[in-house]
DNA sequence: TCTGCTCGATACCGCTCGGTATCCAATACC
DNA sequence: GGTATTGGATACCGAGCGGTATCGAGCAGA
């Protein structure tokens, strides 16, 4: 049985478009079913294609995952950087705003959190050093450190911890609370993150 | 070809012993290869048995995973509770000691951390409510809340956050920092956790 | 219009997996 | 010591996977 023009009236979409669709579908499907739990065919189907498209655009399933890391983790880095963009408020208010923003972002992207967690696992399992995931992670940490330094300087307060450690703390707290919130949303108030951040930088605030 | 007494000189180990060996092997193999990445045969072989033993002691692979959750998460709960056992030191010193202890525990059990992360993922994916993992988690949280309350009372200081939120914070920080430490050990000093805890409870300490 | 190439669709292969039916040695019981 | 039962070993099945070879429709260039 010859094919009957599977998708639409025989239009051939640009290659870059196919690649993007596959990458987006991979993010969604892998997040929901797990990387091992989802087949290459599942990803392709979710994007409206077949396995052939995947193997034409990516060499293997592992390559697809690698491309996904490159793509999504870079995007995450940008999101993280945007979240620490400055305002002219007090340090405590900025801390609270940042916490709220990150908490909201985590809520809105539960799928991505799940995928993120799995990529993290894979990075750890396959020898932490050298992976793209680890590299991007380090970039993010460096950028956060810089931003923390800048805001502390501008506020003119003595940091309770070295800036690099504050950055680590910030990221760890973000991940830890997101994890906690996924499994028990009621146990983590919306503003907890912000209040803790304000507390750490020495501005308990007036509630 | 009749079997030639596969394991040793035909001794038959007690059932409970086999079950334990399989459970321990499952923890190790699943942690290293992932639950999906490891086959039932892999687990059995690691324990010195074959698939038959697994299906005799557990109904299915899922049941094996469930038993593992029950077994290991309970053990984790006990470890967590032991870690908050009291001393007569100052609140700040206690916080630092707790942080160091949890950090050390995380270092010594990287395999378990990995497995823990995967079980967490599975719990979230299969509808967070009702799973044994979530239940144990809640138990732990309640116990930590109680312990926090007790220590704050004894020290006679006003808590900077409600005890329940402090417990959430403690657990989130523990997981977040462990995560961070797995992927970049150098970026998370040994005593960071302790210092942050001391800071949060209002005792920056000397040094 | 013809031609050569790109790239997704299709069919297929080898392999591994979870799960089951069967078998038989070691134990427990009387 | 004879007998019933327990429980791990073995062989096997169907399903689904990642990956590949091939095909042919659509596009670009002349």
Structure summarized in a few sentences:
With 207 residues, the first copy, chain A, is mostly helical.
Give a written overview of the molecule:
2 copies of one chain form a homodimer. The first copy, chain A, is mainly α. Chain A has 2 domains: 59 residues, Arc Repressor Mutant, subunit A (Orthogonal Bundle), CATH 1.10.10.60; 132 residues, Tetracycline Repressor, domain 2 (Orthogonal Bundle), CATH 1.10.357. Helices cover 70% and strands 0% of the residues of chain A. Chain A contains 9 helices and no strands. In chain A, helix 4 packs parallel to helix 7 and helix 5 packs antiparallel against helix 9. Chain A is elongated and about 60 Å long. At the A-B interface, helix 6, helix 7, helix 8 and helix 9 of A face helix 6, helix 7, helix 8 and helix 9 of B. The structure holds a DNA duplex (30 and 30 nucleotides).
The fold-level CATH name of the largest domain in chain A is Tetracycline Repressor, domain 2
Biggest interface: A-B, 45 and 45 residues
CATH class of the largest domain in chain A: Mainly Alpha
| Beta strand count of chain A | 0
Helix content class of chain A = over 70%
Distance between the termini of chain A: 70 Å
């Amino acid at each position: 049985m010859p094919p009957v023009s599977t998708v639409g009236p025989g239009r051939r979409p640009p290659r870059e478009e196919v690649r993007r669709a596959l990458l987006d579908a991979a993010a969604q499907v892998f997040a929901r079913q797990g990387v091992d739990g989802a087949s290459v065919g599942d990803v392709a189907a979710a994007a409206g294609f077949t396995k052939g498209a995947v193997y034409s655009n990516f060499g293997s399933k592992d390559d697809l995952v690698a491309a996904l890391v490159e793509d999504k983790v870079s995007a995450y880095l940008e999101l993280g950087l945007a979240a620490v963009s400055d305002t002219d408020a007090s340090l405590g208010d900025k801390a609270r705003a940042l916490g709220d923003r990150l908490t909201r972002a985590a809520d809105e992207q539960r799928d991505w959190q799940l995928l993120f967690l799995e990529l993290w696992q894979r990075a750890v399992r396959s020898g932490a050093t050298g992976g793209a995931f680890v590299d991007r992670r380090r970039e993010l940490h460096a950028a956060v450190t810089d931003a923390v330094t800048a805001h502390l300087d501008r506020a003119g307060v003595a940091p309770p911890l070295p800036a690099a450690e504050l950055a680590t703390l910030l990221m760890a707290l973000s991940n830890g609370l997101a994890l906690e919130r996924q499994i028990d949303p009621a146990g983590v108030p919306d503003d907890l993150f912000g209040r803790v951040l304000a507390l750490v930088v020495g501005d308990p605030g007036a509630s």
